[in-house]
Amino acid sequence: xxxxxxxxxxLFAILFVAxxxxxxxxxxxxxxxxxxxxxxxxxxxxxxxxEDDDVDDTEAIFLTDNLIVDASKAFVNYTLPAxxxxxxxxxxxxxxxxxxxIYNHFNDDYDLIVILAVETLKPEGTAYGITTPAKNSIxxxxxxxxxxxxxxxxxxxxxxVVFMPRTEFVQSGPFLHEIAHLWANKGFIGTTVxxxxxxxxxxxxxxxxxxxxxxxxxxxxxxxxxxxxxGTFANGGNSIPYSNVELYVMGLIPxxxxxxxxxxxxxxxxxxxxxxxxxxxKTYTAQELIAANGKRIPSYEVAQKxxxxxxxxISPENAIxxxxxxxxxxxxxDFFKQGPSSESTYNFWTATGERAxxxxxxxxxxxx
Length: 368
Fold this sequence. Notes:
Blueprint: H1 9-17, E1 22-23, E2 61-64, E3 67-69, E4 76-79, H2 82-89, H3 95-103, E5 112-116, E6 130-133, E7 135-136, E8 146-147, E9 160-164, H4 169-172, H5 175-180, E10 211-216, E11 219-223, H6 244-249, E12 261-265, E13 268-269, E14 275-277, E15 280-284, H7 286-293, E16 306-315, H8 322-336, H9 348-351, E17 357-360
Parallel strand pairs: 4-16, 5-9, 5-16, 16-17
Antiparallel strand pairs: 1-6, 2-3, 3-4, 6-9, 7-8, 10-11, 11-14, 12-15, 13-14
Organism: Cellulophaga baltica
Protein name: Substrate import-associated zinc metallohydrolase lipoprotein
Keywords: Signal
C-alpha cells in the first residue's frame, strides 16, 4: 500500500489499540485553538427495531433499584452514588463500568451507547464530549482494525460510547461531532490536531475550512460555512452538517464522490481570525487518498446506514425532575428522528444529507 507519509498514522494505530478516547475541547467555538489531547467485511450491523417490539410506554421498568427504564422508553436512568457520579464529571470514570452493567440487562442490540450526565453547566476545564471506540471493523479509514467490544460487555456489535456532561448537548452539539469520531480522523489525512482534521479543506464536524485564500508569503486564511474563520477540531457544534470526507469515511457516499483535500504542511496559527502560515498547501486527490489508505471495506454499496443507539442518563441518587425528563425525551426524539430538526441545528438524519438514520429507544426484545 502506498504511503503519503502521514506522520500521525502510526500514532493513531497505537491510540486505537490502546483504546484511547477522542476528547473534544473544552472550547466549542470555531477559533483555531488546540484540543485537549487526551477486509472484506460483511455488511455492517443493522437496525433491530420493529414496532411490534415496543415496550409498554405507560410505566417505568425497574431493572434494578438504580437502573430504571424511563416510562418514555427513550432512555435508561442509571443513578450513582454522588462520589461515583462525580468521577465521570471529572473525566475520571471508566465508561466500560457503565456499559458492562447495561449489558447485564440488555441484549447486544446497539451500535452506539450514549451516556449523558445531568450537569447544569459544563464543568470548567473538561471536554464537551468524549468518544470511546469499542472497535473498528472498517478498512480504509487510516487506522488499525481492532475489536475491544468484550471489555465493554458487548458480544461484538458495539461500535463505541459517547459521553457528554450535559443533556442539552444532544441538540446544540457536540453530539454530531462525537458520532463522527466513530469513523474519523483515524489517520485518513495527516494532521497536527490529533483525531481531527486540523488545517485542511475538510470543512466539517471535526474541523477544517471549506474556503482558502492565499494571502502571500506562505500565509493563508481559511473560512467555513460563510463565516469569518474556521476551527481546527470543531466548527460550532451541530450548526453544520457532515462534510464530504466525513460522509465518505462513514460509508455514505461512494469513492467516486470523494473530493480532493488540501492539507497545510507544518501549519502554525496566526494572530487574525482564520489565518495561519504553512510551508505549503498540498492537494491530495481522491485517488491518492484511497491509494494511501486502501479502499473502504465495506464499500458504500453495502455499508451500514441504519444504526441503533441506547441512551443512558447518569445522575446522582436524587431523582431527575419530570420537567427535565420531558426535555431529555424531546431532544432525543428530535436528534434521532428521520426528519428535519425542530431546532436551527442539524440532527443526524439531516447532517448526513438524509443518507443515514439512528433509531433510539428501548424494545421489549432487547431487555433480558
